[in-house]
Amino acid sequence: MKRFYKSLFLIIGLTLVTSNLFAQTSDYQVKVNFEETYNELKASIDNAMTVDEVDSLSLEVENLEQNYTEHKQLLDNALYPETFSSSIEELKQDARNTEHLLLVIEDQGEKLTRLSQELSNYRSEIANLGNRTDSLRNEINSSEKSRQDLSALVQRYRSNIEKRDEFVLNMIDSLFVTYRDLEGASFSEVEKEAYARSIQSGDNPLEVIQGIIEENIQILKSDDGSLQTEDHLRMYVVQSRFTEVWDKIGNELADLYGDDKSEQWKSNIEDQLQDWKASTSKNMWASIDTHLEQNNVDLGAFDNNESFYNAIESFITKATDASRDKVMTNENYEDFQAFYDFWNKKIKSDWGEFVQEGEVLTMTQISTIDTEIMTWRDESKPRSFVVPILLGLSLITIVGLIIVLARKK
Amino acid sequence: MFLLASMVMIGTACKTFVVENVNYAQQIESVLVPDEDGNVHDVRHGITFNIQPFQQQEFGETDSTEIKEVRLIRNADGFYFITADQFKNVYVMEPGKGKLKLKNKIQVSEERLNAPAFNLRNASVQLIKTDTNEILTLNERGIQENNNEEDQS
Questions:
Q1: Does residue B120 belong to the interface with chain A, where contact is any CB pair within 8 Å?
Q2: Backbone φ/ψ region at B86: left (φ over 0), alpha (ψ -120 to 50), beta
Q3: Please, what is the end-to-end C-alpha distance for chain A in angstroms?
Q4: Do A132 and A242 lie in a common domain?
Q5: Which residues of A touch B29 (CB under 8 A)?
Q6: Residue of B nearest to A30 (CA)
Q7: Is there a single domain that holds both residue A122 and residue A265?
Q8: Closest approach of chain A CAs to the CA of B129, in angstroms?
Q9: Do A275 and A132 fall into the same domain?
Q10: What pLDDT, on a 0 to 100 scale, did the predictor assign at position A197?
Q11: How many other β-carbons are positioned within 10 Å of the β-carbon of residue A278?
Q12: Partner-chain contact A74 B27, CB within 8 Å
């Protein structure tokens, strides 16, 4: 509204100046009036906040051109090294540039408003799921129900967390897609102001992100064993994806929504992401280790991708060597079978999606281990002695027949 | 002897080298604000001078009337026309070596001028009395006749 009045005053001022021109006969005054109007129009164009405002100012530029055309020669001299035409063209170009910028901002503003609404929906959905998860965990903790009922509760708890993770992933993908479109745009103060208007109180993406990280850390820290390895793997993937997106768009988000505390926001969120990563990683590797122990596979210690891969490789190499030394037993083959089940049913099948997405093992590592497992299988398979015995017996029979036939002769 | 003759010839040639039909006219007046010492600088047209002599001419030695702006324009013949608010005269000054020499002091008003301005029309200097819309056409000799015709060209 303030800007509207400013524009209105400018128009009235222009009209008065124009009508005064006929009474005013000083060339110098004509030049001063032109320069004053020019500067006011230029400032108004540079500070315009809407496309409509720029359109109205463009009309004023045309009026200015019409009103001063009769003084063109005078102004060409007075404005040297500029000319009347170059000054007017500069104003028109300014108006075109500002209009283009505002159209881009309006388009981006619409995207951000949509995102803000999406964020709001995600936020309430995640909060609902969080509340349900909390109450289920409390119910599990204080439960005196039967084993079967408890198992059903745990199942619902895990299912809720899975849904929650799905929402978090969708939200972070939406954030990424929106801000990727804005990538490369250098945000002016005008743009930041426009974007800041597009978020409603409480829907600040930085607050939403911070809230989600806090809740995830809380879930991990309060886990009493209800969550299984696939839950931890999925949470590890969510955390990795979250960090990856933050690394790409975190600076822009903090600049846009952090006001004068963007650095502080950035630093706080990065600290929280580190904390989240440490908790997720620790829980996931511990959970895989527990699962292996329960299935009588002892890989030794591991707590990251590299040490996990090395532990598997070392385990297979040792087992393969042992199989070569003990050809006559089935024991090695049973060890092989236990590991083979773990590898194929869990790592490559049940957990395969998360193992690859979270880069728990890379495709190259999986492929190398596959080859080594085949060698181990060949070495550990119990060999059958029936064929050699039959061959020996056949040989003895043939020799015996030959001897008998020779004596008859 | 030959060398001396050559030098005399070259010297004579230099003295007689003249470019005719030079137009010194300034298309638009300069409005100059004096600094604390009374100096004004016209950066565009390249002239600097002190206004205190004009002040003394116009108001006398003892009067301390402050000159806020000086208006200056040059005609086609190269004379400077100088006046200011509260002046009664236009000073026609002829440029010399490091000086401006009074060519004519044209009284343009019985009363002190209020917001005067110079325009250049058809190579002549016009003094505009903006408060009365009166126009005086001036040259270095004084006020020209038919000076009330307003020239809008």
A1: yes
A2: left
A3: 131
A4: yes
A5: 26-28
A6: B28
A7: yes
A8: 9
A9: yes
A10: 55
A11: 13
A12: yes
Helices (H), A145-228: 147-182, 189-198, 205-221
**Residue A114 tokens, joined:** 């949509």
Q: Is residue A392 in a domain?
A: no
* Whether residue A206 sits in one domain with residue A337: no
Distance from CA of B151 to the nearest CA of A (A): 9
Residue of A nearest to B117 (CA): A26
Chain A residues in contact with B71 (beta carbon < 8 A)? 28
Of A251, A274, A294, the domain-final residue:
A294
A142 and A289 in a common domain: yes
Of A26, A74, A80, the CB nearest to B117: A26
Interchain contact B125–A (C-beta under 8 A): no
A324 lies in which domain range? 305-386
Q: Which residues pair with B74 in a beta bridge?
A: B80
In 3D space, the residue among B125, B127, B151, B150 whose CA is nearest the CA of residue B140 turns out to be: B125
Please check whether residue A146 touches B, CB under 8 A: no
- Cα separation, A132 vs A130, in Å, equals 5
The model's confidence at residue B76, banded by pLDDT at 50, 70 and 90, is very high
- The answer as to whether A177 is a domain residue is yes
Q: State whether B27 and A78 contact (CB < 8 Å).
A: yes
Q: Establish if A250 belongs to a structural domain.
A: yes
In this complex, is the C-beta atom of A27 within 8 Å of any C-beta atom belonging to chain B? yes
* Cα distance between residue B40 and residue B43, in whole Å: 9
Quote the minimal CA–CA distance from A77 to chain B in Å: 7
Number of separate domains in chain A = 3
Residues A311 and A220 in one domain: no
Chain A positions in Cβ-Cβ contact with residue B130 (cut-off 8 Å): 24-26, 29
Record: contact B44-A29, CB cut-off 8 A: no
Q: Say what the pLDDT of residue A180 is.
A: 66
Residue type for A84, please?
Answer: F
Domain identity same for A277 and A336: no
Radius of gyration of chain A, Cα coordinates, nearest whole angstrom = 38
Residue A197 included in any domain? yes
Say what percent of chain A tops pLDDT 90: 26
What pTM value is reported for the model? 0.53
End position of a domain, from candidates A65, A96, A127: A96
A274/A132 same-domain check? yes
pLDDT above 70 (res A313): yes
Question: Chain A contacts of B31, Cβ < 8 Å?
Answer: 28
Size of interface A-B (CB pairs under 8 A): 38
Q: State the DSSP code for B150.
A: -
Of the listed ranges A78-87, A215-224, A233-242, A276-285, the least confidently predicted one is: A215-224
